[in-house]
């Protein structure tokens, strides 16, 4: 059993929830630190798990949580849920950046960050631009390894339904044969497995992993 620690952001969400289940089922981390704004959907009794209610507007007050080896970041919202572009940016850029920079300042070596296919700081599409700006910003942080996961549509059991996701799912089902692998939907569980596989390797440097590679890596991990 290792004595490594991980900070997991977004554990109440689809991808973060899959990461949490997976991390609890393996022995890679002795401490799994989970800052949340709302309670986890399931009760978990595991001495490795530390759940902390956090005000993401006051992250400086929670600096003690950031002394970890690895950080897995799956935070995110939609413009619809957030209520405005500014609120969306606050979550998808500011909270994600500030938590990453807190971990980097406290000596974390590896950032594993979920952004999205199409992330591009110069994109005319607001969502892609915010994701791209986040990728660019975290490259400047003093991690040994930065691994960016750029999934296409993510499939899994979500508590709420999202129209864009339902349309994407239907279209990719209908046109699956014509869609290149990097555009095909990826299962949240596969994304979690790929994150764990890349965390285990922790090769120094910066890398971007898209849906086709996510599926391939997920197939080959032993858990
Ligand atoms: N879903 C897709 O098809 C898709 C595709 C490509 C990329 N992505 C990206 O992948 C990442 C994970 O997506 P997901 O589908 O797992 O997202 P999700 O299910 O909506 O989960 C998002 C997480 O972020 C947290 N969060 C949202 N707003 C917050 C706020 N104001 N303050 C603090 N925490 C907040 C949520 O906490 P609460 O539970 O408290 O709300 C939840 O833990 C996101 O960055 C997303 O943009 C998603």
Give the helix level as a range of percent: 25-40%
How does CATH name the architecture?
3-Layer(aba) Sandwich
Cα radius of gyration in angstroms: 17 Å
Order of helices and strands: EHEEEHHEHEEHEHEH
What molecules are bound to this protein? NADP nicotinamide-adenine-dinucleotide phosphate
Low-confidence stretches: none
Shape: globular
> Largest beta sheet: what is the strand line-up?
3-2-1-4-5-6-9
Keyword list:
single chain; 223 residues; alpha/beta; Rossmann fold; 7 helices; 39% helix; globular; binds NADP nicotinamide-adenine-dinucleotide phosphate
Secondary structure elements and their pairing?
Elements: E1 5-9, H1 14-25, E2 31-36, E3 49-53, E4 70-73, H2 79-82, H3 85-105, E5 110-114, H4 126-139, E6 145-150, E7 154-155, H5 163-175, E8 186-187, H6 188-201, E9 205-210, H7 211-220
Parallel strand pairs: 1-2, 1-4, 2-3, 4-5, 5-6, 6-9, 7-8
NADP nicotinamide-adenine-dinucleotide phosphate (NAP) is lined by residues 10, 12-16, 37-38, 56, 74-77, 91, 95, 114, 116, 151, 153-154, 165.
